[in-house]
Amino acid sequence: MNYTNLFRIALKALSNNKMRAFLTMLGIIIGVGSVITMIALGQGTQKSIQKEISDMGSNIIMIHPGGDMKGGVRRDPSEMQTLKMKNYEALKSECMYLSGISPYATASGQLVCGNNNYPSSVTGTGTEYIDIRQLVVADGSMFTEADIKTSAKVCVIGKTIVDNLFPDGSDPIGKVIRFNQVPLKVIGVLEEKGYNSMGMDQDDIVLAPYTTVMKRMLAVTHFNGIFASAISEDMTEYATDEIRTILRREHRLKDGEEDDFMIRTQQELSDMMNTTMNLLTTLLACIAGISLLVGGIGIMNIMYVSVTERTREIGLRMSVGARGIDILAQFLIEAVLISVTGGIIGILLGASACLAVKYLAHWPVYIQIWSVVLSFAVCTLTGIFFGWYPARKAANLDPIDALRYE
User: Fold this and answer.
1) Cβ neighbours of 130 (radius 10 Å)
2) Which of 259, 285, 314 is at the close of a domain?
3) What is the rounded distance in angstroms from the CA atom of residue 125 to the CA atom of residue 156?
4) Same domain, yes or no: 283 and 239
5) Count of Cβ atoms closer than 10 Å to residue 350 Cβ
6) Which domain holds residue 393?
7) Is 328 in contact with 17 (CB distance < 8 Å)?
8) Other beta carbons less than 10 A from residue 113's beta carbon
9) What are the average pLDDT values for consecutive 10-residue runs of the chain, which has 406 residues?
10) Neighbouring-strand partners of residue 140
11) Cα 125 to Cα 91, 106, 132, 221, distances in angstroms
12) Predicted TM-score of the model (pTM)
């Protein structure tokens, strides 16, 4: 059996029916291109989200009030007042696995400066908040511990606030803006961060001392929550356990009682997003993979037609000494050639589609090498699997019956 001759015969047979061969490849081309593009979109989105979470701080720990049962009714966590100043001070002085900690309290309302106004919220924080959230003061300065002690009417604002309250391009540093009748002097402007992948404007932010927000705006003695950062990402779990132990002691919770607070970490958010995106990517790849199945059925169909059309040719080859395995190999090579060629074109199509999506639609894409290799391997196996039965049928033809076939 001369494989070189069989390869040449297969190429000649396909070149004699170029359009039919191309249409047969089309299912494989679309299938491979779709799989590569869908996986690249899914992985690109996942990596974009991971980068944003990392930029926010992969070791962030968020502590919020928890829901509570009263009279058989579970109350909303936002109504709970379980996080107090003494809890914050206990965590700050006793936690060994924390590199930073800051309480926060949020008030919503209208910001006004001259004839300009903008609906937003003011977040009261400590001085360590910008380090925890990895924010950078681009102009001016951050408020100090002295400002917190005196409940100073100062604030640091984001780019969106600057654009809406100072549309003329004037320098906001030193200007006074009003929030629900409370005047706040702008002492700093944060570096621009833009929108995140969930469509949230990260520059729509106003930071003020937490004492200012609690006393002058909300008139409360409890926090909306506490932000903290572990020494390192590896220490996050230890820090979480330490925080839980201290808060349970501070809140005098007995063994068996539920926590009246919630602790969330960026790692939990990252794991949840990764699970969701992996599921979505798999779903998209499976949907695109249906095209490969359709392409494989197309190969089987066209190979059946080819066997029927070339029955006399098969009989003639057998009559001059070709064995069944030679006929099997010939038709199998044709099927593999169709699928492999379609796979190569599909890879080029998928890569081109990814580049188009990246530069025209500005969506995040990340082409995985394994997706290219897997798609190519699958299309090759598809050619062998779906080409085997028609090739076997051709190899089992009786030479005499084949020569008599009209």
Assistant:
1) 19
2) 259
3) 11
4) no
5) 27
6) 3-52+272-404
7) no
8) 19
9) 69 77 82 84 78 69 74 52 88 90 92 91 93 89 94 94 92 93 94 76 92 92 90 85 91 85 78 75 74 76 72 70 74 81 88 88 83 80 76 70 54
10) 188
11) 16, 9, 11, 14
12) 0.62
